[in-house]
Design brief:
Chain lengths: 482, 479
């Protein structure tokens, strides 16, 4: 059952071959049996089963949608009424959300059953999930390896079949990179397609929610649920509701795939390069043609991102001051010390590093040299992509220069960790959709992801390309031995 | 040395919207603490601001009313600082690109008009309040006010005296209440002024170093604070000191200003564009619609009053001090009162009584229609001016709103002017007989003596005699 697609599960639920309660019970059992992976920060069996019972009742009453009763795991970044939304931080470890994020509302309305809250890098800052206040997530393929981040818990949960689908967020690669490291499919949509209302902000102009699944098809179905205009998010796009699964089976003949030179340059691991080459060869067999393109400022995405994201974060995280909710130091003398101690105790090192960086780049006298300059680069990078899309329909390349590294390996050197984001950051800076599709394994057996980048609103086309690839290959069907 | 005073004002006007600038919570004043707060106002994790169009519309109204440029594109920025009543740790304001730029307001001091140019007006949210009284040794936070829409209106440093600063503040106050974007309740903080004051030797081009007096919520305080600042700064310089840039507070009890923080410990607010809010785009159509719905402004109304009612410019200016007063005047004339008499009565007895009772024209117990009824009886000689004043007093005390209310009182109290020549002749004869001295003086050519005789006749008639008829009778009999 755990290898079934959403379509199959939906059919089984409709045919009463399985109930929502049975499904939820099966997955809860797996989550508990694999607690060592640390993929979940919280589960609440009573809540899950109550929701599953309600789903079964809706099915019995004939009020069910196609996905009613399907279990889902939510990244701990989405406010969900009655659940702690810790965002991977000690700061919010006791914060019970009094309202629902738009994504949660949409999932609830579709009848999805919440299995629990997945682990993540604190406030979504990190590429390895080691920055969680609740401990690192282990990569289900190799427990010595990181699962990627920041949505490492969601990626690991889907990879280990602890949930059929999961929600995540992607600010600089936080869906695509863990999807790649864990061998699952994940998509970061066009900025503005998924409402950020109720999604705890890291870097507002870059954050975007998106789905994880075992396949492109499952991702398309979950994206159908998550996407949609929301007037409570001023950056939500008034884009007509679309069915992201509508073109899954369309033929790929004539598809022009752009291969950015800069994504295959120095620094790319040989086995990753080989897997991507093999995937491109597969696409040629499916009728696609390949175009050599250039994204000349790829390198500049790293400094641009690591100025803009911390700048926004330094301001977004100011609300965690110990005054109204969240962690407050036990002892303090006066207001300033209350702030200082509460924040010093509540935030982890990476969060502090980014708050400091962000505060610095926005400071009087530095703003022009850093923040404004970074915004200029951001525009140039977006322009580069538009020039590239004049010659191709989709861009493909690796998600990351290498595969999952060992836990602890890059912790001492934050800059080395930042460099791992080189292929994913540009998509966020430009606001484009991007996804990761399983495309093989390295010599140590750790998964490799193929990145597909589309132009604005090209999600259906990307999912089509991913789905056809998954019809022709079986990388996405491989599951780790637990 | 002669000193020149330089003053600029930053005024925070609270806009009269139903809901907050970035949330749907109510802006009503006086609710129980923290009951008017949406997720944005408490700054819960994941909460996002959404622009309230009504606040933007009021900013456009203001821009049009002062002849300013309404920017088609303006940008919201975050002003970052930590304070317990600032839940997000930043205030959403406008920094580099405000919604309104330029414009001017005309003030009048001692009969002389002066134009004060405005720099800009920008939209921003108010903070909450810290409450220190209610909790021993602790501070409470009330976030009801957090997110209330403000329009911060910044003038050029073009005022040169406390009187000009007050005149500007009053003119601005009258304008924002006139167009209805602010309720003008200064006690509740709807109109708060920060006053920048500096001094320089007369003739010097460069500005002196300024100090900013924060949060003045009455015109009297503005005047007192400016005077105190000017005196402080001049004395400091004349004693060989130097003014340090600072933010100061005015203490109304002592009449002194006290530095709150100096430039050295001024905040670095780290302004940057708010990524949660796209730039505010205002279309030409929107501006034109607001323009077409804008009420007639004081200057235009003054000109019309002179033209339409034939009253002096001074009267027109006084009557358009507020929209309510102007409305009362027009209603009085519309109900049949002579335009000039109506102006005299409203600027005279009505205003005097309101002032004495510390009331606004909207609280007047005598309706415009009732006042018109009274004025008509003056015009048609039913009563004389002196009696009319008494009747108005009675109408006031009795709260008369009926258009025929004056007639009823005149009838009830027998105040009708005596115009019957027979009855008045007897009075005149008696006065002539009893006032030989005045009679003699009049006959000797002293015109003033006649006035005294008329006065005696009025007294004898208990105020009811028609002074015109009495004068004629006296003249006839003494001829």
């Amino acid at each position: 059952m755990i290898e079934k697609s959403l379509k199959q599960l939906s059919g089984m639920l409709a045919a009463k071959d399985v109930s929502a309660v049975e499904l939820a019970t099966e997955y809860l059992g797996r989550i508990k049996a694999n607690a060592a992976l640390n993929a979940f920060i919280a589960i609440d069996e009573a809540k899950t089963l109550a929701q599953a019972q309600a789903a079964d009742a809706a099915r019995a009453a004939g009020n069910a949608g196609a996905l009613t009763g399907i279990p889902v795991a939510h990244k701990d970044i989405f406010c969900q009424q009655g659940w702690v939304a810790s965002c991977g931080s000690k700061m919010l470890e006791n914060f019970v959300a009094p309202y629902n994020a738009h994504v949660i509302e949409q999932c609830d309305a579709a009848g999805l059953v919440t299995l629990g809250r997945t682990n993540m890098d604190e406030f979504a800052m990190g590429s390895s999930n080691e920055n969680s206040a609740f401990g690192a997530v282990l990569n289900p393929w190799d427990r010595k390896a990181v699962p990627g981040g920041s949505s490492g818990g969601s990626a690991a949960a889907v990879a280990a079949r602890l949930a059929p689908i999961a929600t995540g967020t992607d600010t600089g690669g936080s869906i695509r990179q863990p999807a790649s490291f864990c061998g699952v499919t994940g998509i970061k949509p066009t900025y503005g397609i998924v409402s950020r209302f109720g999604m705890i902000a890291y870097a507002s102009s870059l954050d975007q929610g998106g789905p994880f699944g075992k396949s492109a098809e499952d991702c398309a179905l979950l994206l159908n649920v998550m996407a949609g205009f929301d007037e409570r998010d001023a950056t939500s796009l008034q884009h007509a509701k679309e069915d992201y699964a509508r073109d899954l089976d369309a033929p790929l003949a004539g598809l022009r795939i752009g291969l950015p030179r800069e994504y295959f340059a120095e620094g790319l691991a040989a086995d990753v390069a080989a897997a991507i080459d093999a995937a491109i060869a597969e696409y040629k067999k499916l009728g696609a043609t390949v175009v050599d393109i250039s994204l000349p400022n790829t390198r500049l995405a790293i400094p641009s991102y690591y100025v803009i994201a911390p700048a926004e974060a330094s301001s977004n995280l100011s609300r965690f001051d110990g005054v109204r909710y969240g962690h407050r130091a036990a002892d303090y003398d006066g207001l300033t010390e209350m702030y200082e101690k509460s924040r010093a105790e509540g935030f982890g090192w990476e969060v502090k590093r980014r708050i400091l960086t962000g505060t610095y780049v926005l400071s009087h006298g530095y703003y022009d040299a850093y923040y404004l300059q970074a915004q200029k680069i951001r525009r140039i990078i977006a322009d580069d992509f538009q020039r590239a899309f004049a010659d191709c329909d989709l861009i493909m390349g690796p998600v990351a220069p290498g595969t999952a590294w060992n836990l602890g390996d890059k912790n001492a050197d934050p800059v080395a960790m930042y460099l791992e984001d080189i292929y994913t950051l540009g998509v966020n800076l430009a606001g484009l959709p991007g996804m990761s599709v399983p495309a093989g394994f390295d010599t140590a057996g750790r998964p490799i992801g193929l990145q597909i980048i589309g132009n604005y609103f090209a999600e259906a086309k990307m999912l089509n390309a991913a789905h056809r690839f998954q019809q022709a290959t079986d990388w996405h069907q491989k599951a780790p031995a637990l | 040395m002669k000193w020149e005073v330089v003053i600029g004002l930053e005024v925070h006007t609270q806009l009269t919207t139903q809901s907050k600038i970035f949330s749907s919570a109510s802006t009503a004043f006086g609710a129980a603490p923290n009951t008017q707060t949406a997720v944005v106002d408490i700054a819960l994790p994941g909460a996002l601001p959404v622009m309230n169009k009504a606040a933007v519309e009021k900013a456009i109204q203001f821009g049009l009313a002062i002849g300013a440029k309404v920017n088609q594109r303006s940008v919201f920025a975050r002003k970052n600082y930590f304070y317990p009543d600032l839940p997000k740790g930043y205030q959403i304001s406008q920094f580099e690109l405000p919604v309104v730029e330029g414009g001017a307001i005309t003030i009048n001091v001692d009969g002389v008009d002066k134009t004060i140019n405005l720099t800009r007006a920008h939209l921003e949210e108010d903070a909450g309040k810290s409450v220190h009284e209610d909790f021993h040794g602790l501070s409470g936070i009330d976030l009801n006010r957090a997110g209330t829409p403000l329009l911060e209106i910044v003038s050029e440093p073009e005022m040169r005296s406390a009187a000009e600063a007050v005149a500007y503040a009053k003119a601005l106050y009258s304008l924002v209440t006139w167009i209805g974007i602010c309720d003008g309740n200064m006690q509740e903080g709807s109109f708060r002024c920060d006053v920048n004051v500096s001094v320089r030797p007369e003739g010097q081009k460069e500005f002196g170093t300024r100090r900013e007096v924060k949060n003045l919520n009455s015109f009297k305080f503005i005047e007192q604070a400016v005077k105190a600042e000017v005196q402080y700064q001049i004395e400091l310089i004349e004693d060989g000191g130097k003014v340090q840039q600072a933010t100061v507070l005015f203490n109304p009890d002592t009449g002194e200003t006290r530095a709150m923080r100096s430039k050295e410990d001024a905040h670095d607010y780290r302004y940057f564009p708010d990524p949660d809010l796209p730039p505010l785009v205002i279309s030409d159509e929107w501006v034109e619609r607001v323009r077409s719905e804008l009420p007639e402004l004081p200057a235009a109304m003054q000109a019309r009053f002179v033209e339409q009612y034939g009253i002096p410019a001074y009267d027109a200016a006084t009557l358009t001090a507020s929209k309510a007063l102007a409305g009362y005047y027009e209603a009085t004339v519309a109900a049949g009162a002579d335009a000039k008499l109506a102006s005299n009565w409203i600027m005279g007895d009505v205003s005097a009584t309101l002032n004495r009772e510390e009331k606004d024209i909207v609280d007047t117990p005598v309706s415009a229609e009732a006042l018109a009824g009274l004025i008509r009886r003056v015009s048609d000689n039913t009563i004389n001016n002196k009696t009319a004043k008494d009747v108005l007093r009675k109408m006031w005390d009795e709260g008369v709103t009926d258009p025929n209310g004056a007639d009823a009182i005149i009838e009830r109290d027998g105040l009708k002017q005596e115009t019957d020549t027979g009855a008045l002749e007897a009075i005149v004869d008696e006065v002539i007989a009893n006032n030989a001295k005045s009679v003699e003086e009049y006959r000797a050519g002293k015109e003033k003596a006649l006035n005294a005789l008329v006065g005696q006749c009025m007294k004898a008639s208990k105020g009811k005699g028609n002074p015109g008829v009495l004068t004629e009778l006296l003249k006839q009999k003494l001829a």
